[in-house]
Amino acid sequence: MITKKQKKVFTVLAIIAGLALLAGSVLPFIAYLR
């Protein structure tokens, strides 16, 4: 049984992971352009 608090924590972690992946793909591209 997943509680509401656990679901909220999981959502936050998912967002952070998504941002990390986005940064990981964007930063090398920016470095390449410079």
Keywords summarizing the entry:
34 residues, mainly alpha, 1 helix, 88% helix, rod-shaped
Estimate percent helicity: over 70%
The tally of domains stands at 1
Order of helices and strands: H
**Uncertain spans:** none
- The fraction of residues in strands falls at under 5%
Distance between the termini: 50 Å
How does the overall form come out from the CA principal axes? rod-shaped
Kindly state the mean pLDDT as a whole number? 93
Walkthrough of the structure:
With 34 residues, this protein is mainly α. The protein has one domain. The chain contains one helix and no strands. It is rod-shaped. The N and C termini lie far apart (50 Å). 0% of the residues are buried. Keywords: Membrane, Transmembrane, Transmembrane helix. The chain crosses the membrane at residues 12-33.
Q: Concise description?
A:
It contains one helix and no strands. The protein has one helix at residues 4-33.
SSE topology:
Elements: H1 4-33
